[in-house]
Specification:
48% helix, alpha+beta, three-stranded mixed β-sheet, GMP Synthetase, Chain A, domain 3
Length: 85
């Protein structure tokens, strides 16, 4: 089915917009959705502004963003990776 293909990226973007972007913005950064791989279930995001290259951004990514997406989208997310923008 194409439901996962259409639905999962849309759900990821909604979660990023509603929950994650405001928290990242409070630290002077920004996060943008880049891609979702249906087969590997890997989400790629772009960290921008103060978050780009910041050592704590990796911890934030794994502990905050990845955990939240896995909890909110069980069985749809295996990993979240960041590309510095």
């Amino acid at each position: 089915t194409t439901d996962g293909l259409d639905g999962t990226p849309g759900k990821i973007i909604a979660i990023l917009d509603e929950y994650i972007r405001p928290a990242v913005a409070s630290d002077g950064g920004n996060i943008a959705f880049k891609s979702y791989d249906e087969e590997s279930k890997v989400v790629s995001v772009i960290l921008q502004g103060a978050c780009s290259g910041c050592p704590s951004s990796t911890i934030t990514l794994k502990n905050g963003i990845e955990t939240m997406l896995k909890e909110m989208l069980p069985n749809e997310i295996s990993e979240v990776v960041a590309i510095n923008g």
